[in-house]
Amino acid sequence: MAASRRRSTKAQTDTAPAQAVSSEELLHYYREMLLIRRFEEKAGQLYGMGLIGGFCHLYIGQEAVVVGVQAALKEGDDVITSYRDHGHMLACGMEAKGVMAELTGRIGGYSKGKGGSMHMFSREKNFYGGHGIVGGQVPLGTGLAFSHKYLNDGGVSAVYCGDGAINQGQVYESFNMAALWKLPVLFVIENNKYAMGTSQERASAGELHQRGAAYGIPGYQVNGMDVLEVKAAADKWVNYIREGNGPVILEMKTYRYRGHSMSDPAKYRTKEEVEKMRSESDPIDQLKSKLLGGGLVDEDKLKEIDREVKAIVTESAEFAQQSPEPDPSELWTDILVET
Amino acid sequence: MPIEVLMPALSPTMTEGKLAKWVKKEGDTVKSGDILAEIETDKATMEVEAVDEGRVGKILVPEGTDNVAVNTPIAILLEEGEDESALSKGGNAPVAAAPANPAPAPVAEAAPAPAPTVPAAPVSVPDSDEDKFFAKTVKKTVREALRDAMAEEMRRDEKVFVMGEEVAQYQGAYKVTQGLLQEFGERRVIDTPITEIGFAGLGVGASFKGLKPIVEFMTFNFAMQAIDHIINSAAKTLYMSGGQMGSPIVFRGPNGAAARVAAQHSQCYASWYAHCPGLKVVSPWSAADAKGLLKAAIRDPNPVVFLENEILYGQSFEVPEDEEFVLPIGKAKIERAGKDVTITAFSIMVGHALAAAEELAKEGIDAEVINLRTIRPLDTATIVNSVKKTNRLVSVEEGWPFAGIGSEMCALMMEQAFDYLDAPVARVAGLDVPMPYAANLEKLALPQVADIVKAAKQACYR
To answer: Residue B101 above 50 pLDDT?
Structure first.
């Protein structure tokens, strides 16, 4: 029933034609997506070795979303997301070493080992976390946008949430205020189809990109498996937001290959479904085909990038094991700012 | 070098598992992301993907093996160009360097030698220099004092703004923000929709970037909708970010019982917020407290929960005129010196405690009344020093007794003043019931002056 109702609502897709993208840019996206992929694979491996503890949510499969949106942002714009955050941090330019060392709980991590996978920040890169409470980042990110408006600094905040978080009440409280006050915020719904083990069909009525309609927030669906489509939509709408038109919602149709977290056997979907996405829609393979098919680069160039990325990831894994655990005295630091 | 594939941990608690099935066989080539094997944990059967590429040279643990410990080598991968002869050379761990520092062991085993439960050296707060400011005072209500504190700080710092329900055009649901819209305009005095978790979270987000929001809750009862952001976002981010970003924000509004508004609108949250590291919790009594402490709270780089009291809003007190009158957070005030029994109280209960002290004086009992002012960090030194003199303590609060501020006082006495006590610590608190509506029942549920007098006399064995 729900599914048939859904189909009756016409989805508004945004397939803004990609402007000419230089092969340099394409290679940059390739490199960024590959870095996230390889980093996450390594994180999964270190988790398996017991070097990373607790919850660890991998971003494998979703790389095009964050890389495409990031390409539309400028220096001074903010990013905030949930706990599936490693990819966002790398895309923001945070160092792989610092992120991996945080995963292993070492002093060299971005939060000195005190935040872990789900709670990492970089003041320098305007990355505001890394939040562990589903939906919690949405009002916070709306507040970042409020700050841009208050200071009139021309900045935009990109606020990511998943198809699970989109059912939290505080998301709508944020939509309301963002629209009411025309805050410069891009809400990116990363719809990977499953809120942990519950599929979108079983959890969400209606179309997700239309969830802002009652507030007058424009919303569009975007093919989140294609970095160029993501980039084109993000370019167009970030620009619109920066011009003072208020918030926009972009629903990125994406997919995570791995389980919700490391301990999820993902029995709620078929192997065939995962395999189909991997073989037909993989964001990295798609871009690779474009690069090679269009004769823009040769295999050697991509291999060179592969090697470079592998070296960064290997170095980050080594650093993450060699960096010492935080000194016990760190227990008592950063609780309050000393006055 | 051949690469060892290790038995992976597949959940936060897994230490061993069953190697249920090999999907790849010896001789098979393996790409990154290929399923190698299926492993049963205590919770589920999971597929294990390859990270490294190569060819399966040797399977070390046959399928069907139970209780394979995490990190046991289960297979050897040969890299491009290697043949089986490489197997004899032994495997190379997938990550070259052995951990310089072993992965953290479970907390129970790793617990370092007796860990303190509070920082060894409490943060020392300088003594208040407030007396000099009282040379020149003016009579003001608590409501006016709060408004003046906000107005002065907003004039002083462009980054300070106030937001909440009815704070602007309506001039404040309880008229605390009266006149602020007229002076500072709608950019800095912001009416929000009725959307507590939304605007609390929005305020915290703005504070991450260095703005200094004053978030008014019409009453703290409604802040329960927003408590996730007060604790998870405001209080914990400085720690979770390794000190990179904190939340300089004030959450303020009336707390505790007003009059005849019954259970959902009459609750004291002092103990709730005081429980949480990363927050400061302030609860003023007089108008001077209100002004000096609210200014301090706004200037403080940390999140401050500022618990006011509706009944006090209309009460008048002498308030220093000087705009630099700021009270230190973390310092209690001895409102009345005495030698026979110490009474601690905060907010509206300070007035009750002072009234009780007058009653006690008539019976020859000289009570010392401490206005806590700050609940967290608690000024333990002032309390303990007082008890060293009086040897008796009565804790007064409007909130419920269970795990309340009085419970904390009892613990403080056990830990820091046990040898000085001549009587058990007495707790005077609200009754352990939801607040009733009926006038007589409501009065019975709240601490009265007579209750404090009775407790103090008992502590003095009178």
So the answer is: no
Single residue among B299, B320, B341 that ends a domain in this structure: B320
C-beta pairs of B242-245 under 8 Å, 24+ apart in sequence:
B242/A109, B242/A110, B242/A111, B242/A112, B242/A113, B242/A114, B242/A115, B242/A121, B242/A334, B243/A112, B243/A333, B243/A334, B244/A110, B244/A111, B244/A121, B244/A122, B244/A123, B245/A121, B245/A123, B245/A128, B245/B208
**pLDDT of A154 strictly over 50:** yes
Q: Would you say residue B453 lies in a domain?
A: yes
- For residue A194, the enclosing domain spans 21-318
Chain B neighbors of A263, CB-CB under 8 A: 10-12, 14, 41, 43-44, 46
Q: Under an 8 A CB cutoff, do A136 and B12 touch?
A: no
Residues B303 and B344 grouped into a single domain: no
Q: Beta strand B29-30 with B160-164: parallel, antiparallel or unpaired?
A: unpaired
Q: Does B374 share its domain with B240?
A: no
A31-88 confidence digits (pLDDT tens): 999 999 999 999 999 999 999 999 999 999 999 999 999 999 999 999 999 999 999 9
Residue A31 lies in a domain: yes
Indicate the residue among B67, B93, B119 that finishes a domain. B93
Q: Does B114 touch chain A (CB under 8 A)?
A: no
Tell me if residue B254 falls in helix, strand or coil. Answer: strand
B201 vs A contacts (CB less than 8 Å): 136, 138-140, 142-143, 170, 173-174
Q: How many domains does chain B have?
A: 3
Q: Taking CB atoms and an 8 Å cutoff, what residues of chain B touch A106?
A: 101
Location of structure tokens 């294609």 = A226
ipTM higher than the 0.90 cut:
yes
**pLDDT tens-digit map of A180-225:** 999 999 999 999 999 999 999 999 999 999 999 999 999 999 999 9
8 A C-beta contact, residue B141 and residue B316: yes
Contact list in B for residue A176 (CB cut-off 8 A) is 193, 195, 198
B313 and B417, same structural domain? no
CATH label of the domain that carries residue B273? 3.40.50.970
Given an 8 Å threshold on Cβ–Cβ distance, is B95 in contact with A321?
A: yes
- Lowest-confidence segment of A4-18, A112-126, B36-50 by average pLDDT: A4-18
Taking the Cβ of residue A3 and every Cβ of chain B, the question of whether any pair is shorter than 8 Å is answered with: no
Q: Is B196 a catalytic residue?
A: yes
**CATH number of B448's domain:** 3.40.50.920
pTM: 0.90
From the list B45, B198, B244, the residue facing A173 with the nearest CB is B198
**Test mutation, A38, A42, A94, A121, chain B, max B CBs within 10 A:** A121
